[in-house]
Amino acid sequence: MYRDPEAASPGAPTRDVLLVSAIVTVSLSATVVLCGLCHWCQRKLGKRYKNSLETVGTPDSGRGRSEKKAIRLPTGGKAVNTAPVPGQTPHDESDRRTEPHSSVSDLVNSLTSEMLMLSPGSEEDEVHEGCSRENLGRIQFSVGYNFQESTLTVKIMKAQELPAKDFSGTSDPFVKIYLLPDKKHKLETKVKRKNLNPHWNETFLFEGFPYEKVVQRVLYLQVLDYDRFSRNDPIGEVSIPLNKVDLTQMQTFWKDLKPCSDGSGSRGELLLSLCYNPSANSIIVNIIKARNLKAMDIGGTSDPYVKVWLMYKDKRVEKKKTVTMKRNLNPIFNESFAFDIPTEKLRETTIIITVMDKDKLSRNDVIGKIYLSWKSGPGEVKHWKDMIARPRQPVAQWHQLKA
């Protein structure tokens, strides 16, 4: 009897079965890769994976302070700032001779393309980059102790890649120096105007400071953005216990800045809407409501109101404010303000929203702020662009208040 040499023997796997098995193996491998990632990455990759399959299928200032500073510390020491010193159905055998697995091959090719997208150096790297924390820059400083003179020396050298805190796309950074737990006494560097990579090269001496006291302290550095009109904006902080440092000689450190301990998340949120009318050259800002505001008063509450500033370049053009809501951490305002803004000036315009706590006996406290412009944070920029893309329509969005 004639037997076709290409016919499969009983029980032997066919080519289709082998190919489908290979496809299943590749799919399982992709699943393992996805399962190993964080939940956020899985969601992001899953969305991109699905879309891909569908595609295949279809100047300096010291602010008036002197360059040298000295304070008397509770321990008896003195601090001095000295002068400046980085799925397929199998074919029958006749089909195999004429059409060698065209559909199966296409599916294999598509899956192979998807696996290449997940290979190191491409999609996976991009996804994990999205998982990384916000970059606040880094700071370089030195610290050492002179045993003969009982003096702790701290040098603030420079910072790199600081984030822009001003609507102009830059910052005016300076550094505060503390020896925790004492926060009452502090020293400060000069302000470096419009500089995201500042060089200070300033030296601070804590004189008459016994070594046994020094090793009980934590060196705390806070980088801030100087603001002439309102509260300075925190950029980031670094803390280093001095008992973990070899103080017998000057040690130089590069430290990544971390979010400041009084972060914006604890200050509450504000819901507001923006409506741009290009024919009238105006923006209507509607302050709707706030939630979970930070308590600024001793009684565990606040008396909030909202200030709205229209800024053009570096100048304040116009200010509006809401009524004050007494003893309310979740106030509802529903107040609208109109500002005249020509279309050609939109890119240089910033709207600053400041939530304040009213105080009769002392200066009003800032609870938090929001900067709305082309150059603000991701959430603020999204709101601004949505406003431009949907003219004459109120666009509402929640915003986290920032310090």
What name goes with the CATH superfamily of the domain at 268-401? C2 domain
Give me the number of helical elements: 7
Cα(first) to Cα(last) distance is: 89 Å
Helix fraction bin: 10-25%
Radius of gyration: 31 Å
Number of strands: 20
Tell me the series of helices and strands, N- to C-terminal: HHEEEHHHEEEEEEHEEEEEEEEEEHE
Describe, in plain words, how this protein is organized in 3D.
Helices cover 22% and strands 36% of the residues. By secondary structure, the protein is α+β, with helices and mostly antiparallel strands. Among the domains are: 138-256, Sandwich (Immunoglobulin-like), CATH 2.60.40; 268-401, Immunoglobulin-like (Sandwich), CATH 2.60.40.150. The strands form five sheets. It has a six-stranded antiparallel beta sheet with strand order 2-3-9-5-4-12, with no helix packed on it. A four-stranded antiparallel beta sheet has the order 7-6-10-11, with no helix packed on it. Helix 1 (15-35) packs parallel to helix 4 (102-117) and helix 2 packs antiparallel against helix 5. The protein is elongated, with a radius of gyration of 31 Å. The chain starts with 14 loop residues before the first helix and ends with a strand.
Task: Write out key terms for the chains shown.
Immunoglobulin-like; six-stranded antiparallel sheet; 20 strands; disordered N terminus; 36% strand; four-stranded antiparallel sheet; alpha+beta; 403 residues; single chain; 7 helices; elongated
